Amino acid sequence: AQSVSQHNHHVILSEAASLELGCNYSYGGTVNLFWYVQYPGQHLQLLLKYFSGDPLVKGIKGFEAEFIKSKFSFNLRKPSVQWSDTAEYFCAVLSSNTGKLIFGQGTTLQVKP
Amino acid sequence: EAQVTQNPRYLITVTGKKLTVTCSQNMNHEYMSWYRQDPGLGLRQIYYSMNVEVTDKGDVPEGYKVSRKEKRNFPLILESPSPNQTSLYFCASSLSRQSLAKNIQYFGAGTRLSVL
């Protein structure tokens, strides 16, 4: 069955610390991978996506993610977090047959000023 | 401005009282979808629609109905809401199924529903 697993449920960091959020997926077809962010009280916004090509993907607000096919992983990184990065982060894989985005459980990031 | 609009944003109701959450998009998208978001479970798809008059079940369709009479609208209907349907609901749309892999899904702002 298709699934996405995010290992960290709640992460607390100080400003300027580096961030890495883990994401592993289980999907047999061509993978299209996403990271979404949800700021408190707001809707989901796309951070970055991977469809093909360079496995290191750069997104908005200084985020990047690396697709490692052999590890079925798509971890999100940011070298130096800011207080404004406090949010919930979701990894997702797209099922191209149904258009269903299969989401991970989400990781809540809290950045202390 | 391209957007997906959901109404209402917040709703408190009682068990068994039928309700409808509307969703409208102004991007001429063919594909629309409903998700519910619950703590620790991420987002799960309820129903989706490839085009007008074409709908299909997602992962958690029980207790929900949808319709797609027009391209722009995709209402979510709860005929007899129950407390386990208390959740945060998101509508999403994308250009088409055929090019879905290269198109992004746009999300509405969410509807927070409480069923007492």
Task: Identify the notable features of this structure and list them briefly.
heterodimer; A: 113 residues; mainly beta; six-stranded mixed beta sheet; four-stranded antiparallel beta sheet; 0% helix; B: 116 residues; seven-stranded mixed beta sheet; 11 strands; 49% strand; globular
Structural overview:
- The complex is a heterodimer of chains A (113) and B (116).
- In chain A, 0% of the residues lie in helices and 52% in strands.
- Chain A has 113 residues and is mainly β.
- In chain A, the strands form three sheets. In chain A, strands 2, 5, 6, 10, 11 and 12 form a six-stranded mixed β-sheet that branches. Chain A has a four-stranded antiparallel β-sheet with strand order 3-9-8-7, with no helix packed on it.
- In chain A, strand 8 and strand 9 (73-78) form a beta hairpin.
- Chain A is globular.
- The mean pLDDT of chain A is 90.
- In chain B, the strands form two sheets. In chain B, strands 2, 4, 5, 6, 9, 10 and 11 form a seven-stranded mixed β-sheet that branches.
- Chain B is mainly β and 116 residues long.
- Chain B has strands at residues 4-7, 10-13, 19-25, 31-38, 42-51, 54-57, 65-66, 76-78, 87-94, 106-107, 111-115.
- The radius of gyration of chain B is 13 Å and the shape is globular.
- Chains A and B meet through strand 6, strand 10 and strand 11 of A and strand 4, strand 5 and strand 9 of B.
Quick gist of this model?
The complex is a heterodimer of chains A (113) and B (116). Helix content of chain A is 0%, strand content 52%. Chain A has 113 residues and is an all-beta fold.
